[in-house]
């Protein structure tokens, strides 16, 4: 696959909706943040959202344990704080916005992570949070949990002192099924080095027949069918915002 085609697929809402829609949602959240707000991007990695917060005082944090090839843009961006996410070296209430995307599944103590994010938020400050409901193993060995449900967010964000919790699924079950259809086609490609030569030869004609169905027809129809999914039990993940409770004086 050429680099140009790979880049196009990575930006396609049809073929890479999880990342594309998450980026779009974060861009919208960033547009709501007042200029000059202190923002901390927790687990920032390659810092793909730096430009979205150019109007803010944007800072970054990461433990930085991963190889370059495990990161979205092939390496870490400039980091202001290198620390464990449960012990960020800043005072309480340091930031008006805390951004934390696709991090919770990579920490062995995600509840402690939520408490730390709440600690560093100013009263009235906003948490912008995403994590998967289900995903394959990635960024190993730093992948500890399969995913987080709305009830997990409701319970632990509240106990951390956060309120006004909004939880939105990143599309529904049919889009999730389409993603797995594409993953199946990719994982079983006859060009895959993981398949023995004999298996590749036997599988090739079937793969060629399935490719247009699973690689194009299923994703297109699943995108259309997704509007009819009311329960969304197999969504790929959730987009969450919450606000740190302000002190109430009697």
Describe the structure.
- The protein is an alpha/beta fold.
- About 35% of the residues lie in helices and about 20% in strands.
- The protein has helices spanning about 5-10, 15-30, 110-120, 150-160, 175-185, 195-225; strands at about 40, 55-60, 80, 95-100, 120-130, 160-170, 235-245.
- Strands 3-2-1-4-5-7-6 form a 7-stranded mixed β-sheet, with helices on both faces.
- α5 packs antiparallel against α6.
- The radius of gyration is 20 Å and the shape is globular.
- The model has no long low-confidence stretch (mean pLDDT about 95).
Task: Describe the secondary structure blueprint for this structure.
Blueprint (H helix, E strand, L loop, with lengths): L2 H8 L6 H15 L6 E5 L14 E6 L18 E2 L12 E7 L8 H11 E12 L17 H10 L2 E8 L3 H15 L9 H29 L11 E8 L6
Parallel strand pairs: 1-2, 1-4, 2-3, 4-5
Antiparallel strand pairs: 5-7, 6-7
Summarize the structure.
The protein is of the alpha/beta class and 250 residues long.
